[in-house]
What we know:
- The protein is mostly helical.
- Helices cover about 60% and strands about 0% of the residues.
- The protein is elongated, with a radius of gyration of 21 Å.
Amino acid sequence: xxxxxxxxxxxxxxxxxxxxxxxxxxxxxxxxxxxxxxxxxxxxxxxxxxxxxxxxxxxxxxxxxxxxxxxxxxxxxxxxxxxxxxxxxxxxxxxxxxxxxxxxxxxxxxxx
Length: 112
């Protein structure tokens, strides 16, 4: 996805006109680099977060390590936080409680 966006940026277009390849390369629409070699599929932050959190719940170190390598630590942290927010909202609606009550209950904290 980002390689396609890079080709649309003015700086990438200028680099291409000077004879230097644009960073990332556009690649073919079929997911290959144009030479017939298949590029490795990239994972998004939410997929990485889902795999990472599920692996943590199952105490699966290998899956946690794999998911950690898919995206930057910052992106994984953002995805895990977003997943936590969505899970708390879903549980709060299911239990007909406030998100604060649910989070405190999940963490074993007293309710104010």
